[in-house]
Design brief:
globular; mainly alpha
């Protein structure tokens, strides 16, 4: 298993480095790193580098957020983008733009408040619902918050995107308590409810801040942790680091493909993620139903 992890990490490192290099030199205009004009240097450092950093951080954040949700809710398709967390964050950050346009961190603060609001509603339903019923509630909340946002935007997409992002953040890590059940946690002197609450709060903050900066990106929090479990099993000491780096690479890869495939036009990352993520979600549900 140790050799397998090493090989996976090496492959992931090669993919990450090569994709970063490709993203730097390809887009609406292609150029060589060895010989660049002043105009190309401006594109590189003021447009592509911030966009690459944003994609890396957002991909890592959303993947870890998805892994935390799935671990705490014991559900492989729990993900902030389809459970109302991201849409609530997006709605509230839009309200921040309308109400407090001059406050620099207003969008992020309101986004976190929105994410916590949706999280609170999910907690209310969680006590009376099975994990899959809770997903349905989350999807319904997502539809409600998305509809409310459409009212304010007149069906215009006013959210931010990777094309205009330039932010950075850090991601929290986790001990291996995630793979054990509540009884084992209690025997270790760890409050299962408190641990799961803390992890879900971290997941909400990661998803909300990412949404405030680049908009709603669904399915990445399902795809990456699912691949991690297929490759590495259910050891969260391996799943979380893998989700950080694989999520960073995957979103950068998706965004880069969207930039170059129809250059000089673009296909938004959220569109590609929906095309890929929908079938993956159906496959996961079908597989679990078959196993059951």
């Amino acid at each position: 298993m140790k050799k397998k992890v090493i090989w996976i990490n090496l492959i992931l490192a090669v993919l990450l480095i090569s994709t970063i290099f490709f993203a730097l030199t390809h887009g609406a205009s292609n150029f060589s790193m060895q010989k660049m004009t002043n105009s190309q240097l401006n594109i590189l450092f003021n447009i592509r580098v911030p966009r690459i950093i944003s994609a890396l951080v957002a991909g890592a954040s959303l993947s870890v957020s998805g892994a935390f949700f799935q671990a705490t809710l014991r559900n492989p398709i729990a993900e902030p983008g389809i459970m109302g967390i991201s849409s609530a964050a997006s709605l509230c950050q839009l309200l921040a733009v309308i109400i407090l346009p001059e406050i620099f961190f207003g969008k992020i603060i309101f986004a976190i408040i929105g994410g916590l609001l949706a999280f609170g509603l999910l907690l209310l339903f969680q006590k009376k619902m099975t994990p899959y019923q809770l997903i349905i509630i989350g999807v319904a909340l997502n539809a409600v918050f998305t509809g409310m946002q459409e009212v304010f935007t007149n069906n215009q997409n006013s959210g931010s995107s990777l094309a205009t992002s330039s932010w950075g953040s850090t991601i929290m890590n986790l001990a291996n308590y995630l793979k054990v059940n509540d009884e084992e946690l209690t025997s270790l002197g760890v409050s299962a409810k408190l641990l799961r609450l803390v992890l879900m709060l971290i997941a909400v903050v990661l998803a909300a801040t990412t949404t405030a900066c680049i908009g709603v990106l669904a399915f990445i929090g399902i795809i990456v942790p699912q691949v991690a479990r297929l490759l590495l099993g259910y050891d969260y000491q391996k799943i979380i680091p893998f989700s950080i780096f694989a999520g960073a690479w995957f979103l950068l890869f998706v965004d880069t493909i969207g930039r170059v495939i129809t250059a000089p036009n673009e296909i938004a990352a959220n569109i590609i993620l929906a095309i890929v993520g929908g079938p993956v979600m159906i496959l996961i549900l079908w597989k679990r139903q078959k196993n059951a």
